[in-house]
Structure formats: structure tokens, C-alpha cells
TrEMBL record:
It holds the Pfam family UDPG_MGDP_dh_N. The gene is wecC. SMART domains: UDPG_MGDP_dh_C (SM00984). PANTHER family: UDP-N-ACETYL-D-MANNOSAMINE DEHYDROGENASE. It comes from Novosphingobium soli. The lineage of its organism: Bacteria, Pseudomonadati, Pseudomonadota, Alphaproteobacteria, Sphingomonadales. This is UDP-N-acetyl-D-mannosamine dehydrogenase. One of its GO terms (molecular function) is UDP-N-acetyl-D-mannosamine dehydrogenase activity. Keywords: NAD, Oxidoreductase.
Amino acid sequence: MKSDTKPAVCVVGLGYIGLPTAAVIARSGCKVLGLDVSQEVVDTINRGEIHIEEVDLDGLVQGVVARGLLSASTEVAPADVFVIAVPTPFEKDGSGDHAPDISYVLAAGRTIAPVLKSGDVVILESTSPVGTTEQLRDLIAAIRPDLKIPQSDPGGLARETPDIAIAYCPERVLPGRILEELTNNDRSIGGVTPRCARKALAFYKRFVRGECVTTDARSAEMTKLVENAYRDVNIAFANELSIVSDRMGLDVWEVIRLANRHPRVNILSPGPGVGGHCIAVDPWFIVHGAPEETPLIRTARGVNDRKMHHVVAKAEALLEAHPEARVACLGLAFKANIDDFRESPARFVASRLARKFGARIRIVEPYAAQLPIEFTDTGVTQIDIDEALEECDILVVLVDHDVFRVVPLAERADKLVYDTRGIWPDQPRVVREDAARAALAV
Ligand code: SAJ
């Protein structure tokens, strides 16, 4: 790859991270081939359309495909830079110890290895347990003995300049703000060797405006896991406070608001649990790597998972205490203002209530065209927020969508509200206490 010419790039995996990444790289003028195992995904992108929802992504993909900068395929082709953005789920062995499954990363390595040539840069972006980038390196070395592969041990095998560079560079973008954060966030770039890090750095500088900081691959892998574990532990603290406050008859939002006036205290927001594909998953990669040394991270996961069940129990008690009341659950998404329903605690709570109370329950979710499959045959109906305010007596707030947040007090003052997100601090206090009393009665 000559520094004066734009590298040809191959992005492996066209999901929530891979597709926006491919599009942003293409926008910088590089020719990008996106690789995916799904023919349907490939066809969609080649039509200039997208298969996922993300703010402004449709227009960007349409533009770069139309300009011939982005195309998709199921077949690999030679490139100068390879970016791997495939999933790293848990192993499905049923042992329940949340072992990370890096088979998709290794499969991506097997796919690209045959087309690698001297001068190429291979970058892993998938959230990965510590040591994965070195495993990827070893796999490529085994498949391509003809290439000089970078070694982390400087006194080891390859003192000569390696043929290829291998690095780890995690994404840290927030769903709903992916395009903006892909460009503006700082990046940690971990090379298998310092030279590898420098090669990857030169690539990211083409489209990242945030600061790019180089390190070694293992530190960069751990950094990504630590960021999400940090957030999980802090949300667990807030969720534990909310349960304690229920028990003591206190308004947790009031307590947090007051505590956060301290200049060095910043407590996060309680909610119905932690959803999404990152924060509830990544901490386990650390726990799995060091089970004896991670009691805090493991406990935080448990606290956040138990919060979902606490919310279900409290809502059930509320509904049983008011058998005639019509109930609206507000929100199914895993967080505010997005249409992503995977691993959503709101969806979990609403579906449990739907199964138990059937036609008494209505769902308001402006981001869903229809209800997810588990609501079929429950008798539950989907209505909009105006209908909920007209028809329902109890509102269970599960997601802090802006459209819910802006409902004025006058339109909900007579409702019994269980607000798991604290969006209506002015809701009459008596309603909150009623909910808490009902829960304590179980
Ligand atoms: N949540 C709370 N209370 C809070 C904050 C969040 O209950 O105070 C809940 C949300 O409702 C949601 C879950 O936590 O259910 C996760 O939401 P989030 O907005 O904290 O994070 P994600 O999963 O959308 O994205 C995270 C981000 N990581 C951090 O903020 C440290 C993002 O930057 C990462 O790129 C992403 O994980 C990822 O891909 O790893």
C-alpha cells in the first residue's frame, strides 16, 4: 500500500458495525468491498439499500454504492486493508459459563488468508477476549507459511520486516449515533507489534477525526471489554439503589438527583435492566478470562439481570391490586429513541405481562411497525400514545423515548404510573407510593 494512493479495503461482516464502517471508509474515497455470508444482505446493499436501521445510514450507503465506492459480495477478493467486524457471541454449549465464541473471527481469518499479499494490513474490530488477535495471527501464519507474519516477541522468529501487519481496533460507537461517533470518537489501536499499530493508524487517520492512540493488541482488546464493564457496574449500582429505595419507600430519582449535586458523584440511571448486545455481554469476556479475580463484575451482571425480574414482579403486583385497570406498557426497545428490540429488558417485561394478563395489556412502541412474535396470541394490542392516554388507567414506562418524556402532566395526572426510567419526576407522588406498596404486599 503506497501512502499516496487510496487503499482498496475489504470489510468482513456487514452488520451493525461492519456496514456503517464500510460506508464511512467508502465516503473517504477508498474503494470498499463488503463481504457477508448472506446473499440477501449482499443483494440489498448492491441495490443501494440497507438491512439495518441507523440514523442517516440509508442515504450514505445509497450514495457510496451509486458512486461505485462500495459494493458487496459473498466472495473475497484481494485488497490492501482487511477490516473484520463479525459477531463474537457466547459459545452455545449450554454450560452457562458464558465462554466467548470466536469462531466467526477465525472463519473470517480463514476466508481472507488465501488472498493476503505482502504489504496488506489486517485489522480486527470485533469485541474479543484478550489474546484473540494473536490467535488470528497464528491462524494466518499456519495457512500462509509463505508470508512473514509479525511476532509479538521481538527476540523471536521474525526479526526481518514482516510481510503483513495485524492489529486490533475496537469500535466504541453508540447505536443511534453510529455515523457521527465512527468519525469523531477517539480510537485505541493495538498492534501485534508497534509497526503493525503504526500501519493501522495510518489507515484510520483517513476517516477518523477523533484522536487515534496506539498500543499493543492485548491492551486494546482489554480496553474495549473494560469500557463496557465499567458502564455495567455503574448501572448495576443505580439499579441496586432503585431496589433498595423501593424497599425503603424512597423515590430513587430524588435520591440520585440530590447525590449527583456532589461534584465527584455521578450516579447513572436505573432502568428495567441492561439490554443491547454489548454491555450485557462483554463483561462476561473478562469474567471468563479471570473467574477468580472478578467478583465485582460478575455480581454487577447478576444485579442488572435480576432487575428485570424485580420489575416484572412489581408490575404484576400492581396489576393484581387493580384488576379492573386497563394497562399500557410504554416502549419495547432496549433503550431510548431507537428501533432495536434485541436483548431488550422492556420487551422481556412487556411479554411476561402479556402472557399473564393478556387482553388487559396494550403496548405503545412508536418504533415498531408490529409487535414481536412472542406477543402473538396473547390478546395484547398495539396502540399509540394518544390512545393509551385516553383509554388506560395504568402506565408502565419501560423505555424513555422522547415521545413519552414530553407528555405533559395534565394528560397523565390521573394515571397510576410505574415509571422504571424516571421520565416523569412531576408525576404525583401518591401514585409512586401506591406502586411501591403494591409490590411490597407480594
Ligand atoms: N442503561 C441504563 N441506565 C443508564 C444507561 C444505560 O439502564 O444510565 C441501559 C440502557 O437502557 C440499555 C443498556 O443500558 O438497556 C445499554 O445502553 P447504553 O446506551 O449504555 O449502551 P449501548 O449498548 O447502546 O452501547 C454501548 C456503549 N458503551 C459505553 O457507553 C461504554 C457504546 O459506546 C459501545 O460501542 C457499545 O456498547 C458496544 O458496541 O460495545
